[in-house]
Backbone:
């Protein structure tokens, strides 16, 4: 079964710190790796995503690092703020050749708390 | 903005009841999904649909069924609710191609089965 393993389960940092969340996958056919952010009482929302042809992608304070040979990818949050406190999910997918459907396999999530 | 709405935010049902959870999206998306979210288990796919009247099982379909009679609407049905189906249920939708494959989620329905 396709799996994405996410760690840590929870993380507490001080404001300005750089939390790092890691994910590992097994299926080398995965070709799309998004991160979702979920605030309490809300559904998850896409934060940033990467494809395996690049090793890093940065959007604002959020960076994905991707290591294809190790089958690992991670999310770094620079200069973290209390407003970044949320649950973060990594995910992976395989685009079907016919494009008839699209499924995400999610990690189990990381609860991030950024203290003031 | 894409909007995915779910019929209820909170729902309390009794064991054995038939439960309908409805989801509506307004962006003409082909794909729609139902997940359940439980602490420590993340998001698990129950069913998805890639076209009207088309459906496929996800990772945990047991005890659930779905219906998609119109493109914008995807319903999750618990034929006989059980206490182990107490959970947060999230609906999502996405479109073909475009390169981003972003899934747009609704706010969730917290179902309690007593």
Residues:
């Amino acid at each position: 079964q396709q799996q994405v393993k996410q760690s840590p389960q929870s993380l507490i940092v001080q404001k300005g710190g750089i939390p790092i969340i890691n994910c590992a996958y097994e299926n080398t056919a995965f070709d799309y790796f998004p991160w979702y952010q979920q605030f309490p009482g809300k559904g998850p929302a896409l934060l940033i995503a990467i494809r395996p042809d690049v090793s890093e992608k940065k959007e604002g304070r959020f960076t994905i690092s991707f290591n294809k040979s190790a089958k690992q990818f991670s999310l770094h949050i620079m200069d973290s703020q209390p407003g970044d406190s949320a649950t973060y999910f990594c995910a992976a997918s395989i685009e079907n050749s016919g494009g008839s459907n699209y499924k995400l396999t999610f990690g189990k999530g990381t609860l991030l708390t950024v203290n003031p | 903005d894409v909007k995915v709405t779910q019929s209820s935010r909170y729902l309390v049902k009794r064991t054995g009841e038939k439960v309908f959870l409805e989801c509506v999206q307004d962006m003409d998306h082909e794909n729609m999904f139902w997940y359940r979210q439980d602490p420590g288990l993340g998001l698990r796919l129950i069913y998805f649909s890639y076209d009207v009247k088309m459906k496929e099982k996800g990772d945990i379909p047991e005890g659930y069924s779905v219906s998609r009679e119109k493109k914008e609407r995807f319903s999750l049905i618990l034929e006989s609710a059980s206490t182990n189906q107490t959970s947060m249920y999230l609906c999502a939708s996405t479109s073909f191609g475009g390169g981003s494959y972003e899934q747009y989620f609704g706010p969730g329905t917290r179902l309690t089965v007593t």
Observations:
- Chain B is about 0% helix and 55% strand.
- Chain B touches chain A through 29 residues (CB under 8 Å).
